Amino acid sequence: MDFENKVAIVTGGAGGIGSALSTALVSEGTNVVVADLQQSRVDAVVAGLESTHPGKSIAAAADVSAEADIKRLIDLAESTYGPVDFYFANAGVGDGAGIGEDNQIWESALEVNVMAHVRAARLLVPAWLERGAGYFVSTASAAGLLTQIGSAAYSTTKHAAVGFSEWLSVTYGDRGIQVSCLCPMGVNTDMLNGGLEAGDEDGEGLGARVVESAGTILEPEVVAGAVLDTMRAGRFLVLPHEEVLEFYRRKGSDYDRWLGGMRRLQARVAGA
User: Fold this and answer.
1) Three-state DSSP string of the chain
2) Average pLDDT, the chain
3) Cβ-contact 18, 11 below 8 angstroms
4) Taking residues 115-122, what's their average pLDDT?
5) For range 64-87, the mean pLDDT
6) Above 70 in pLDDT, residue 203?
């Protein structure tokens, strides 16, 4: 995998995993469009990148729940740097608790955590098929492979994000389109710490608490490094917390036992 002079779009790029991905890509020589809801926040990220790698990044405000905004990001990347090689569907929301009595919580989670990925792929895949190359990276969560204690909307939509990434790989993997899906547990981001508003998050948060007690809280830079390493290796799952794979195996080997264990974990968390 060659990152030099390639063109990437990173959503949820104003902080956390998105900012770390942007920094890692620029350091590899990639041209990056850094996108998030608030222009001032992505401007700050790009100002830092420009100080060390001038001309390699550009900031853009965008709401990834709007297809027109995603198209605008693609147009900006193409007019500034050339055809898009990598798309990092990293923006995410983690609002809500329990079953989610407010439909708006579900609608927001579906739009940002799932449909934003679908819309981006819909816009990018035809050109990638013509070129015979393209790379789609989805930020999901360990909650998308396991589940989570807390928000039903987060857990359900992260499962859907993993499922859509799988579908992309199965459908287009033999036609030049590569896909990776990031599924970490706890990452030291504003979302994990409850510091951002809906739509401004960058990948991890409430979903990390499914198995947070069993894993180390990683820094975003470590996670970004794992993403690039996985892309170089051409693998699908990005698992910065290696224990997630073992949890996933246990789930698949004895679903009822695993569910019972999760109920016991939920009881311990509730008691704490």
Assistant:
1) CCCCCCEEEECCCCCHHHHHHHHHHHHCCCEEEEEECCHHHHHHHHHHHHHHCCCCEEEEECCCCCHHHHHHHHHHHHHHCCCCCEEEECCECCCCCECCCCHHHHHHHHHHHHHHHHHHHHHHHHHHHHHCCEEEEEECCHHHCCCCCCEHHHHHHHHHHHHHHHHHHHHHHHHCEEEEEECCCCECCCCCCCCCCCCCECCCCHHHHHCHHHCCCECHHHHHHHHHHHHHHCCCEECCCCHHHHHHHHHHHCHHHHHHHHHHHHHHHHHC
2) 90
3) yes
4) 98
5) 98
6) no
Residue bearing tokens 């990056």:
32
CB 228 within 8 A of CB 23: no
d(CA 236, CA 85): 17
Catalytic choice (81, 154, 172, 255):
154
Predicted confidence (pLDDT) at residue 229 exceeds the cutoff of 60: yes
135 is catalytic: no
pLDDT one-digit tens code per residue, 168-200: 999 999 999 999 999 999 888 766 555 333 333
Q: Which amino acid is at 109?
A: A
Q: Which domains does the chain have, with CATH numbers?
A: 7-241 (3.40.50.720)
